[in-house]
């Protein structure tokens, strides 16, 4: 049980110890009357006491109805008891309706964490003949509202650990891993840049190891993750699980990084993918692959020109850089640069208000003009 319910119940117990008549009335009623009737006519205090003292006698349908109770303890305690119940049987849709509604509500982070920690239990049950756990997980990952809630909350530090824990539980199934990567990996990369919280790093890398194991990453994702991972590997990390996951991630990322080829670069280029990676700035990469570039040079120049004319500053900078590196590797290419009027586009970009765009454009244009003179 998480902090919110524990705190509420400690206060509740202290109050009950001063109300012996109140307790006797409830216990007498429980011996003689139907639990549904007792709950129907009981006060908030009486219902709270019954939930706390006699949770095992309250049936599922009554717990479902109590989810709608305006008292926070009653509704959350009912959700907790239903979570225990659903370890061994199919859940009812009202359970998820309550979960989604309460996370959207303006509740405090302690209450949100209560729900999220219980939800981890809900999707982490052992294999059971009474219900299909994988079907339950599939329902969750394909519920757009739940996914959006998790996505919206993942940067909130107070609930971040439990959000990542939910993603970790879901990351063991190959069927869901592409969706987890597409929706959450970019944000997980941002989270990893904060090196101050080992607990968050540990669970983040636990998710990442499964993503690396089961799915492919973009070249930019490999580049970013490799850079972060190498930095973390140089730190004095005390957490053993984190150290192990860093080691696994480093090995996989180094292998994926080394596999990147000029063929993959041109393939991505023509598919509309131009992402930051250290090969863009690696003279060895360009010089050793000039034969392949020269075979496709006209098409490469044309497509890079399209990137130059885009409204995406990152694309523009990378395209300027790649033109610069190609000219350095093979100065004769400047005649084709001129023929396809790339210099004209570069000249216009030297007037850009963006400092990086302006610098990269000047660099590429200077290389083109200088090579032509020589």
TrEMBL record:
The entry lists its GO molecular-function terms as: proton-transporting ATPase activity, rotational mechanism
- ATPase V1 complex subunit H C-terminal domain location is 261-373
- Top-rank lineage group of the source organism: Eukaryota
Determine if Transit peptide is one of this entry's keywords. no
Q: Name the GO cellular-component terms.
A: vacuolar proton-transporting V-type ATPase, V1 domain
Q: Which SUPFAM superfamilies does the record match to this protein?
A: ARM repeat (SSF48371)
Q: Which UniProt keywords apply?
A: Hydrogen ion transport, Ion transport, Transport
Give TM regions: none
What organism does the record attribute this protein to? Answer: Vairimorpha necatrix
**InterPro entries referenced in this protein's UniProt entry, alphabetically:** ARM-like (IPR011989), ARM-type_fold (IPR016024), ATPase_V1-cplx_hsu (IPR004908), ATPase_V1-cplx_hsu_C (IPR011987), ATPase_V1-cplx_hsu_C_sf (IPR038497)
The similarity comment for this entry is: Belongs to the V-ATPase H subunit family.
In its UniProt entry, what is this protein called?
Answer: V-type proton ATPase subunit H (VMA13)
Does Transport show up as a keyword for this record? Answer: yes
Coiled coil: which residue ranges? Answer: none
């Amino acid at each position: 049980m998480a902090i919110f319910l524990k705190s509420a119940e400690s206060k509740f117990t202290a109050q009950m110890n001063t109300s012996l008549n109140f307790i006797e009335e409830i216990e007498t009623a429980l011996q003689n009357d139907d639990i549904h009737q007792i709950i129907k006519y009981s006060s908030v205090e009486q219902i709270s006491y019954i939930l706390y003292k006699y949770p095992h006698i309250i049936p599922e349908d009554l717990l479902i109805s109590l989810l709608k109770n305006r008292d926070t303890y009653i509704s959350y305690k009912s959700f907790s008891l239903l979570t225990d119940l659903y370890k061994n049987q199919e859940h009812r849709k009202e359970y998820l309706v309550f979960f989604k509604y309460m996370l959207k509500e303006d509740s405090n982070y302690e209450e949100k964490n209560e729900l999220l920690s219980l939800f981890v239990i809900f999707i982490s049950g052992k294999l059971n003949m009474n219900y299909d756990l994988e079907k339950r997980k599939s329902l969750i990952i394909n519920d757009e509202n739940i996914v959006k809630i998790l996505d919206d909350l993942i940067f909130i530090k107070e609930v971040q650990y439990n959000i990542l824990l939910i993603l970790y539980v879901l990351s063991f199934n190959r069927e869901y891993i592409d969706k987890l990567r597409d929706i959450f990996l970019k944000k997980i990369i941002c989270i990893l840049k904060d090196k101050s919280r080992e607990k968050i790093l540990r669970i983040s890398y636990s998710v990442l190891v499964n993503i690396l194991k089961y799915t492919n990453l973009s070249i930019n994702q490999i580049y970013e993750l490799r850079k972060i991972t190498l930095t973390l590997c140089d730190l004095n990390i005390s957490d053993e699980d984190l150290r192990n996951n860093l080691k696994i991630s480093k090995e996989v990322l180094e292998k994926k990084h080394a596999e990147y080829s000029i063929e993959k670069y041109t393939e991505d280029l023509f598919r509309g993918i131009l992402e930051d990676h250290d090969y863009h700035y690696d003279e060895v990469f360009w010089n050793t692959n000039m034969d392949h570039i020269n075979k496709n040079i006209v098409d490469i120049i044309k497509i890079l020109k399209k990137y130059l004319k885009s409204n995406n500053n990152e694309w523009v900078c990378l395209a300027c850089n790649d033109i610069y590196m190609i000219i350095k590797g093979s100065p004769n290419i400047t005649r084709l640069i001129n023929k396809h009027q790339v210099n004209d586009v570069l000249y216009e970009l030297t007037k850009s208000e963006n400092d990086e765009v302006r610098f990269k454009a000047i660099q590429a244009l200077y290389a083109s003009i200088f090579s032509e003179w020589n």
